[in-house]
Amino acid sequence: MFNYEYMGLPGSPPGNNGNNSSSTVEIKCQAGNRKQTRVSKVKVLLTANPVVVQARPTEAPGNMMCPFCKTKVMTITEYKLGMLTWLIAGGLFIFGIWPCCLIPFFVGACKDVQHSCPQCNNVLHVYRRM
Ligand SMILES: [Zn+2]
């Protein structure tokens, strides 16, 4: 059992100017039973320009920034046949459940979800279940 305690981020050391500045972070490592405290210094690379990753909606319609019309829209979802659909259908087919092997093609939970923009109808994102 180890408890790692984050000691805070000190300012970048002097004489280090640039986009990527490395600074030292102290991490206090404490053993659970024994009262031993070990302080280890870890070099952390700080990036000046973090890349903003857009949160992609999964199954339900979500807010996305449309790259085509540059507006924030609530996506329209549409179920599309995906890998999981065929796998379930194939599995039912192999195990001899003939009438049921078409069920996945009608059940939305077995399909991929395609998100499209309500204004320009462009496909923004496809949520794949596999
Ligand atoms: Zn759009």
From TrEMBL:
The chain crosses the membrane at residues 84-107. It is a peripheral membrane protein. The keyword Transcription does not apply. It comes from the Eukaryota. GO terms for cellular component: cytoplasmic side of late endosome membrane; cytoplasmic side of lysosomal membrane; nucleus. It is found in: Endosome membrane; Late endosome membrane; Lysosome membrane. Its main location: membrane. The keyword Metal-binding applies. Keywords: Membrane, Metal-binding, Transmembrane, Transmembrane helix, Zinc. This is Si:ch211-202h22.8. InterPro entries: LITAF, LITAF_fam. Residues 47-129 form the LITAF domain. Pfam families: zf-LITAF-like (PF10601). Belongs to the CDIP1/LITAF family. GO terms for molecular function: zinc ion binding.
